[in-house]
Amino acid sequence: MTVKIVFSGLVALATLSACSSVDDREIASGSFAYLAEEPGKVVKIPADIDTPKFNDTYKLPALGEDAPRDVMGPELSVLSPSLVLPLVTGSHVEEGSKKATVWFDQVDDSQALDATIWNSLISFLEEQGIGVETFDKAQQRLITDWMVVTDSDEDSWYTWSPSERSVGQRFEFNLALKPHGRIASLSVDLIDFKEKQQKDGPELTKAKDVRRHEVDILNQVIEHYEYEIRLATAQRILKIRQGLAMELGIDAEGEPAYVVDAEYDITWPRLLLVLKKLGFDVKDYDKSNGLLFVKYNGSEGSWWSHLWSKDENALDLDTQEYRLRVSDVGNKTSVTWLDEESKAFTSAKLNDLFATFSRTMAEDDLDI
User: Fold this and answer.
1) Which one of 185, 218, 239 terminates a domain?
2) Residue, of 14 and 140, whose pLDDT is higher
3) With the C-alpha atoms ordered 344, 348, 349, 350, is the resulting torsion angle positive or negative?
4) Backbone angles phi, psi at 215, to 5 degrees
5) What is the DSSP string of 262-288?
6) Are residues 90 and 208 in the same domain?
7) Res 273 pLDDT > 60
8) Which of 3-7, 38-42, 52-56, 150-154 has the highest mean pLDDT?
9) What is the CATH number of the domain that holds 159?
10) What residue numbers bound the domain in which 174 lies?
């Protein structure tokens, strides 16, 4: 008896699952008998009787001119509103905006903001296997090819009749850049749509909730953008912590200098770690101009360890202040040492310090 009841329950569940569709999950459950109801009539008060005071607390507001009159019953979606999620650092949305739009602030000066956004969007489309129909950089507009998503439940154990739903969409992305170039908005519009609830069923060409489709694809683009930033940050940190090769050379002004085999943005934070490790205090710095003002305090080792062995990090420098000029030289970076009077160290002096500096610069997982 128990087995029959359980099996009957499974049959009922399977039948309901097979009959349900995406549309069924978007509409309210229950009866729509209220659609057949006629609007109530105003109570007529005889002329010889005082008119009572009516309470308008629960009076429904009048429909606006542009309000849809036919979105009722099964045509009314009960899903929660779709929200644009500004996950990227420096991104935001405009409160009250009904468009699928996100705003980005410039946080990385390595390339133009619009180039960063377009590169990330195109990377997302390539990763998803979505083609680009047209891309007009001058007009800041991109139109995708068809993106088709197919959901099939033929292999589901509870399905009594196979069904297949496919949705095809084409989107237009538009980028608006502020005149100063440090703030930009990315908007998306659904321009073509087609859907089949059944493989052999009729094709629908109008989406029930256009904004939901637009916000969904925009949030995927934002998520991909945020992932790329996190990945780039992790890769940059890894490069900074890894050892960097260094050699004796000259800077752009012809002065003797150390030349580090890494780009400026990698060498700068790495140099700060090396200086700290070798006993320097950074008093001040100006990264935009490549200047560091430091004071040498001696190596970090304790006096007890120095008593029994020679400190390998000790430098032949007076305990005083120095200056470093850091310059971008293509894929490499020059580091020029200067005294208090901004006079460059001689080649002989740099050579004396080179072994200690190059060894520390090349040390992996440098931790202070």
Assistant:
1) 239
2) 140
3) positive
4) -65, -35
5) S-HHHHHHHHHHHHHHTTEEEEEEETT
6) yes
7) yes
8) 52-56
9) 3.30.530.50
10) 81-239
